[in-house]
Amino acid sequence: MDYNTQTNEYDFARAYFFPDEYELWRGKSKGMNPNQKLIMIPFGVFFLGFAIFWTVGASAVAGPMGLFGLIFIAVGAYIVFGKNIVGKKTYYLITNRKIYRSRAGRVDMVELANLPPMRIEGHSNGAGSIYFGEHHYRSHGKNHYGVVFSVENVDNIAEVQRIIAENTKNY
Fold this sequence. Notes:
Elements: E1 23-28, H1 34-62, H2 69-85, E2 90-95, E3 98-103, E4 106-111, E5 118-122, E6 127-132, E7 135-139, E8 142-146, E9 149-155, H3 157-168
Antiparallel strand pairs: 1-2, 2-3, 3-4, 5-6, 6-9, 7-8
């Protein structure tokens, strides 16, 4: 893959480049990781089945009340089919200065010089994720976990980690 060839998918970051900035790696997310699919698809099938059952029952008993169930059928169909078929693409671009991420029209970036510690997670589909700056906090009596930035479910995560590590030691 020639990483210097421009394509429309990766042009999102060009406007933010510094004059001395150049591209080192580009890639895109493979969608949900297999562990998420393992949970979401059975839940979605159950949710969709219950929504259909409820809508048919409500239509038989209360007529127009059954129309309310159509919203839940749509949500169930999206959980089962939408995230896997129409899922949002996430694109990543790593330069000698920053990591850029484009997801659903939103561009996030983090400077390599300011990266917090990273944790790497391999997935069963051969891809992996890097999470930067995980932290734990308590709010309203509940535990919450957050991530400052992430590169999620991309191929050859070891290469991505190596590129990031080699370029952060310059700072």
